[in-house]
Amino acid sequence: MRLVSASPREAAARRIVERLRAAGYIAYFAGGYARDLLLGREVQDLDIATDAPAARVQELFERTVPVGAQFGVVIVVEQGMPFEVATFRTDEPYLDGRHPAGVRYSNPEEDARRRDFTINGMFYDPASGRIIDYVGGQNDLRAGLIRAIGDPAQRFREDRLRMLRAVPFAARLAFAIEPATFAAIRQHGHTITEIAWERIGDEIVRILTEGGARRGLELLDESGLLRHVLPEVAALKGGEQSPDFHPEGDVFVHTLRVLEHLERPSETLALGALLHDIGKPQCAARRGERVTFYKHCTVGAEMAVSVCQRLRRSRAVWERVAYLVANHLRVAQAPRMRTSTLKRFLADEGIEELLDLARMDALASHGDLSAYEFCTRKRAELGAEQLQPPPLLRGRDLLQLGFSPGPRMGKILAAVREAQLEGLLASRDEAIAWVRQRYPQG
Q1: 215: left (phi over 0), alpha (psi -120 to 50) or beta
Q2: How would DSSP label each residue in 8-77?
C-alpha cells in the first residue's frame, strides 16, 4: 500500500514485527499508523500491538524498558529508537477516570474495541499491507468524523482525557465530531478537571501547535470544555473593542483570528497568541466612544503565568509567554524609540517570537504591518554586531581610572553603554575620554 520507501524509523519497527512473527506471535502496527497511512499523511505514531506477553517481549529483544508491564506495555529500543510494544488487552473497570484497575490479555478485536476513537482503532499488518478494521474506522475517515468507539459516555467515563483528545484530531484533520460523541463531551465536560492538569496542558498545547488552532479553540468553546480548562479565555467572549482598531469584533473573535495565523508554532508562541489579550476583561473601561484597556499587557502577563502554571508548563515556557504578553504592544512603539532603546529591544532573546505575535495581532485586527516591517528591516540593517556590541568599558577599566567600587561605577557603565548604543562612542579610547570629561574625580 505504501508508495514510498520506509523511513529508518518505520524500517526499525518492521524488524520488531518480523522478530515477533518469527517467534510465533501476531504483530501489527497500531492506531495512528493506519489512520495516517489511509489519509496519505506523514506517519506520526509507530506503536506495535502483539499477542506476545510483556515478559516474552522482554526475552525476545536485547534492549527493553518495562514502562507499563502491568498493562502489557514495553518499550523496545531498536537501532537506537524507542518503540512502544503493547500486548492486545481488554481493560478492567476504570476507577480514577484515567487508568484501568487492571487488564487481561485478549485478541486484536477486543483490543481495538477498548480504544478511544474509530479512526485510531485500526491495525496495519506490515507483512501483507492489509488494514484490519473492527470498528468502522475506514468509513469514518471517508466521512470525516471523529467517533468514539462503542458508547461515548462510557469511553469518557473510563478516561476523561479522551474528551479533550477529540479536539486536536478534529481540528488538525478538519473533521467533525460525531453528534453522539459531541453530546457526551458536552454532558461530561465538567469532569475534565478530575484528571492531572499536566495531561490537560499537553492536550491544550497539541490543539494550538498541531494545526487548526482556531478550529480547536472553537470546538473547546462549543463543547463547553473551554470554561472548565481555560476560563480566562472563555471570559474574552463579548469583550467589546473599539472598531477603529478592532473592526473584527470582540476580544474572543480577535483571539480566534490571531490563532488562524499560527503555522507550526513553538509552544511559547502558541500560548502567547492564545493569551496575549487575556488581561483585557479586567482592564476594560469606556472613554466616550472608545473602549480602553490600560495596563492589560501587565495584568495579562501575570494572568498568563497563572494559566501556564495551572497547565503545568515549564518555568522556561511561562517566562517566555509572560514576556510575549507583556510586550506585544511595544512593537507598535518601536519606530518612535531612541536608537539605544530600539537596539536593546531588538536584541531581546524572544524578539523573533514577539515580532511574529505582533504580525499576527495586526493581521487579525487593523491590518497595519508598518511597525512590524520597521522592526524586521532594522534588525536586518543593524545586525547582531550593532544590536549587541561588546561593551567599550568594564568595571576593571574604571578601577584603573581611579574610580572606587560602588553604585556610581554601575551608573557610569550604564551611561557609557547608552552612549555606545546611541552611536556617540565607537572605541575604548573615546569612552575613557568621555568618562573623564563627564565624571571628574576629586
Answers
A1: alpha
A2: HHHHHHHHHHHHHHHTT--EEEETHHHHHHHHTPPP---EEEESS-HHHHHHH-SSEEEEEGGGTEEEEE
- Nearest Cα neighbor of 171 from 121, 208, 119 is 208
104, β-bridge pairs = 90
Question: Given phi > 0 = left and psi -120 to 50 = alpha, else beta, which region is 264?
Answer: left
**Inter-residue contact 213 to 171 (CB < 8 Å):** yes
Q: Splitting the chain (442 residues) into consecutive groups of 10 residues, what average pLDDT does each group show?
A: 67 95 96 91 88 93 85 91 92 58 78 94 94 96 97 93 95 96 96 94 96 96 97 90 70 95 96 96 81 89 97 97 96 93 92 97 93 95 86 90 88 89 88 89 62
Cell numbers that stand for 249 in this block: 469584533
Q: Are 84 and 73 in contact (CB under 8 A)?
A: yes
Distance CA 122, CA 119 (A): 7
Residue 181 and residue 50: Cα distance in Å, rounded? 29
Q: Based on the number of CB atoms within 10 Å of its own CB, is 254 exposed (0-12), middle (13-18) or buried (19 or more)?
A: buried
